[in-house]
Write a structure and sequence with these properties.
By secondary structure, this protein is an alpha/beta fold. The protein contains eleven helices and 14 strands. The structure holds glyoxylic acid and manganese (II) ion (2 copies).
């Protein structure tokens, strides 16, 4: 019998080697690393009997043609990682989807309906201050203005896509017809400890949290650290520090809210000069959109007040927003049955605090998500790990779910 857990683990190892140098996996969109993983994925898609093409948002689409009813079922995830991330967040869902379709082909049990595996380019949003570009393009909700955003080297998303051989001006043409989109499934590591604590390999997601991101620019005045009197300083970093502390306080005191300052850039960033410029990011997440929006208003008011008191100018721009999304009950129940068959246990249901391409796909069609247990519940670090046994359970559950697609 084919050991799909072992095969998927080997494929994930090969993919993890495709990374920028440094700890863990760093694979950003529209880079040589992205191109190299697409070559590996194309080979496995072909083995699974899928035709494939790259769309103009950089999504590799592997298609099982099917011969039954009209419409297409989508199953996907993302190829990109955070900087110094792990080998599973994102790309595992693509590997498992291809393996599940190959297993069904080998068993002569391929789904009747067309199924497309979508390997999205950019879900993490670490290179440009936006995210979910590929899934939004498929859903028909991508805002072409994001093409003008720049990365930390000043490269626009548009230029990076063109360099990658894509035609970003055609991004609006990728949108699928909601009338023929049967549904979307994403399989992902849990990125938390719930499944491990419950001692189960798989879980079914009930809803995905909402998220927004801001870029905050603080402008003060630099000067000599020894001679500039304290009372007349316009220190941008001191203003930033007050904001960072408030972001944390607010989330500590608001049940369900997560708030993070993940990036901080200081200029001139020298030991004996007062900081003149600070650029930082604020990211807010919550299962309840109203709670997140209230937190956003509070932090904008706070940022302007606290920096104004110090003579520092403050500009806070929202660069990204994705509302919370519930998973669709019928698909979720079908997935829970497949998980039950694979694991011999009633499927555990849990919400997702991470965002996913499924959030964007929800604008196209009903969505569902399956989580796979990860060791120590960790993610976005090189320590991410999923056992071969759990990969095997996941292939089994996905293939059981997909086999019902007639
Ligand atoms: C993606 O992993 C995110 O939730 O930021
Ligand atoms: Mn991630
Ligand atoms: Mn992910």
């Amino acid at each position: 019998m084919t050991n799909w857990g072992r095969i998927c683990a080997e494929r994930l190892n090969a993919l993890a080697r495709v990374s920028e140098p440094g700890p863990g996996v760093t694979r950003l969109p529209f880079t040589p690393e992205h191109a190299a993983v697409l070559d590996l994925l194309r080979g496995w898609m072909a083995e699974a009997g899928l035709t494939h093409h790259l769309d103009d948002a950089g999504t590799l689409v592997g298609r099982h043609v099917g011969d039954g009813r009209k419409g297409t079922f989508y199953i996907g995830s993302h190829q990109d990682s955070v900087r110094e991330g792990g080998a599973f967040d994102g790309i595992m869902g693509i590997v498992l989807a291809i393996a599940a379709l190959q297993k069904l082909k080998d068993e002569g049990a391929s789904p009747d309906c067309p199924v497309e595996v979508l390997a999205f380019a950019d879900e993490e949003g670490v290179r440009w201050p936006t995210a979910l570009v590929g899934s939004r393009a498929v859903a028909g909700t991508v805002d072409p203005a994001v093409l003008d955003m720049t990365d930390r080297d000043g490269v626009t998303l548009r230029a990076a896509m063109e360099e990658f051989g894509l035609a970003p001006e055609r991004i609006g043409k990728i949108a699928r017809d909601p009338a023929t989109a049967l549904g979307y499934l994403e399989c992902h590591i849990e990125q938390g400890p719930v499944l491990e604590q419950a001692d189960v390999p798989l879980g079914v997601v009930t809803a995905i949290c909402g998220i927004e991101r801001h870029v905050v620019t603080l402008t003060g005045e630099t000067g000599h650290a020894g001679t500039l009197p304290m009372a007349t300083r316009r220190d941008a970093l001191v203003g930033a520090a007050a904001l960072v502390a408030e972001v944390d306080r607010l989330a500590q005191e608001t049940e369900g809210l997560r708030a993070t300052v993940g990036e901080l850039h200081v200029a001139p960033n020298v030991v004996n000069a007062v900081p003149r410029d600070v650029r930082l990011t604020v990211e807010l997440r919550a299962p309840d959109d109203a709670m997140r929006e209230e937190a956003s208003r509070h932090l904008q008011d706070f940022a302007h007040r606290v920096t104004g008191n110090r003579g520092v100018d403050c500009d806070m721009q929202r660069s990204y927003r994705q509302p919370a999304q519930p998973c669709e009950p019928l698909l979720t129940n079908a997935l829970a049955r497949a998980v039950g068959i694979s694991t011999g246990r009633t499927a555990l249901r849990l919400p997702s605090g991470a965002t996913h391409d499924a959030s964007a796909m929800a604008d196209l069609c009903p969505i569902s998500m399956m989580f796979v247990r990860c060791r120590n519940g960790v993610s976005h670090t090189p320590d991410e790990h999923v056992s071969r046994e759990d990969l095997e359970h996941a292939v089994e559950a996905l293939s059981t779910f997909l086999a019902q697609m007639t």
